[in-house]
Amino acid sequence: MPSSHRFLAPIAFWAVVSVLLPFAAVAQHEHHQHPAAEPPPAAAPEAGEKVALTVPDVALIDQDGKPVRFYSDLVRGKVVMINFVFTTCTTICPPMGATFGKVQELLGERAGRDVHLISVSVDPATDTPERMKAWGKKFGAGPGWTLVTGARDTVVQLLKALGSYTPNLNDHTPLVLVGNDPAGGWTRAYGLAAPAKLVELIDRVAAEKTAPAQAPAGGTGASYFGEIPLVNQDGQTMRLYSDLIKGRTVIIDFMFTSCTGACPIMSTSFAKIQDWLGDRLGKEVYLVSVSVDPVTDTPERLKEYAARFKARPGWYFLTGSQENVDAVLRKLGNHVASPQDHQNLFLLGNDRTGLWKKAFGLAPVDSILPIVQSVVDDKG
Known about the structure:
Layout: E1 4-6, E2 49-50, E3 59-62, E4 67-69, H1 70-75, E5 79-85, H2 93-107, E6 115-121, H3 129-138, E7 145-149, H4 152-161, E8 175-180, E9 185-190, H5 195-206, H6 221-225, E10 229-232, E11 237-239, H7 240-245, E12 249-255, H8 262-277, E13 285-291, H9 299-308, E14 315-319, H10 322-331, E15 345-350, E16 355-360, H11 365-376
Parallel strand pairs: 5-6, 6-7, 12-13, 13-14
Antiparallel strand pairs: 1-16, 2-9, 3-4, 3-7, 5-8, 8-9, 10-11, 10-14, 12-15, 15-16
């Protein structure tokens, strides 16, 4: 699935793209974090939350023993709902299977035609195709509901890409992903929500339209971004395009200093990207962290926050007037009513070549670095 755009795709539309983390019993910005470790599951609201997602085309096996490519055969061009289960689970998996069964029933003739259900085993060592088929049968799995397993390494790769990997099977969480591949939109939600609510979510995602791929007015970075002034952690005024983006490769994230959930993880990832960049930071590549809470986040607070992550020259933390920050967030497709609602998304852009990509900010850094390198090294 395409995850990159020449500048010629307005960044405002990137708010509809997605990757994800599982549901936890706490809110996304309140779960306990270990910044140096692999991110723990984040919360998925019942109503759904937009997330950035790149779906790998890994080789798996369905419940009939048929080889399938996850993206090419199951996702491409479709509206899908995905859950994550294992057949020996006696806690959340049976209710999730029953929920899928009810969703299938409520969809009626649309199941397998307009909407496709996918159950991915998180225990491929145990879950043979035969076991998956028997498990699905208990919940009435019919045409349009595919259950998949495969080689452990391949399944782990998929689970990590979809943000649903946990080393301990019993720690996996009741997450569903709803995707509209033609529109590039993905939403994650609580997998034990009422089936009728999940069908409403499916309908909402299915109604999304493909983001247009024409240039913004004027067709250039300057005309799209404009010169909105912000203030960095040193109290210096910086214009959005001329001082931060023009002629540079930038990696942008969204945070606020009082956040105790996703923001420290994303900032830790930025610190690791900073180390990976080495001398290129501040010369070829710049890191830009935009506060979504400018009322609280003064330059002084941002400077203290930057020090926590040992930010070096070339990593800017930005605030400003509410009006100016809101305008910037709209340009970057991340304007939200409440700081807690901001997307866990990295935007990566090479202004010289016009290439822009997105990455899920809570994904393991090892999976983000190849995206960074592809943007940094782009020749146009």
